[in-house]
Specification:
The structure is a single chain. This protein is of the alpha+beta class. It has 2 domains: 1-32; 37-137, Jelly Rolls (Sandwich), CATH 2.60.120. The protein is built from 1 helix and 9 strands, in the order αβββββββββ. The strands form 2 sheets. Strands 2-8-4-5-6 form a 5-stranded mixed β-sheet, with no helix packed on it. A hairpin with a 2-residue loop joins strand 4 (76-80) and strand 5. The longest helix has 26 residues, at 6-31. The radius of gyration is 26 Å and the shape is elongated.
């Protein structure tokens, strides 16, 4: 029988532990699942006119990607779940100290169950949201 030196024995233990850790990590990765895949459903154009404070709710099993939004001749305040999220201004003119989001801002993703609302500094202003709706497929 051949005896292993202390250094050789330690090397075998180290390789064994790395192998066990690698197998364990692979098993965990197989158990973890993503939240779901996105599948295009429809394009929405949600709008409101004078003195209309319409609200819209993202349906269950869906997510919305707000591609663009606008307000004719006024500042628009956008609400998510009845709390002001940001102030939208078509061009940069932020004199109110609120969170500013301009017309060149990237898309905004909102999850199912979120209530999207708005108000305007000009009650007769036309306001709109251009949205792509996706199904969340498990």
């Amino acid at each position: 029988m051949q005896l292993l030196s202390l250094g050789e024995h330690h090397g075998i233990q180290h390789r064994t532990m790395r192998t066990v850790a690698f197998v364990f990590l692979c098993m965990i990765c197989m158990l973890v699942k993503a939240q779901g895949n996105l599948q295009f459903n429809q394009v929405l154009l949600l709008n409101a006119t004078s003195n209309n404070t319409a609200q819209w709710t993202v349906p269950a099993g869906k997510t919305w990607k707000i591609e663009t939004m606008g307000s004719y001749s006024s500042t628009m305040y956008v609400y998510l779940n009845n709390s002001i999220a940001f102030e939208y201004i078509g061009d940069y003119n932020n004199n109110f100290g609120a969170y500013y989001r301009g017309s060149d801002a990237p898309a905004l993703w909102i999850p199912s169950g979120t209530v999207l609302g708005h108000s305007s500094s000009n009650a007769s202003s036309f306001r709109y949201f251009s949205i792509i709706e996706f199904n969340i497929v498990p």
